[in-house]
Amino acid sequence: MNHDRSIKPYPVNMTIKKPKGRVAISLAIGPIEITQRILLAVLVGYFFSMEVSAFLGRGLSSFIERSEAAVFSSMISFVVYILVIMWVFIDDKLFRLWIMLPSGTIFFYLINTPSFA
User: Where do the domains of the chain lie?
Assistant: First the structure.
């Protein structure tokens, strides 16, 4: 028996590769950025989905009964909320999220609010 051979953990022709993509990026995120993303996802995402729900309910009430429009728009708002949460944690640029989500929320709020002029 030849005991001189050293045991190698992997074949010689294989090289160890560094992780690419979101795995490598997510390890470099600091606690302040995580806190901002959680704030955007939970609070701003909730208000955004609430305003989208009100917009859909108002728009659909002219085609179907108001009660059915309210139920349907609230079901769609859950889907919108989940999509916003996923978008907040997938997007690389935090600045874009801080611009898009609050401005979209304000946009839908202004559409839903009747003008008093």
Answer: 30-112
Q: Name the percent of the chain in helix, strand, coil, to the closest 5.
A: 70, 0, 30
In this prediction the pTM is: 0.71
Phi, psi (5° rounding) for residue 51? -70, -35
Q: What b/e string do you get for 6-38 counting C-beta neighbours within 10 Å, with b at 16 or more?
A: eeeeeeeeeeeeeeeeeeeeeeeeeeeeeeebe
Task: Give me the percent of the chain exceeding a pLDDT of 90.
Answer: 61
Are 75 and 49 a contacting pair, CB within 8 Å?
A: no
Q: Which token pair is 39?
A: 């704030």
Report the distance separating Cα 77 and Cα 71, nearest Å.
10
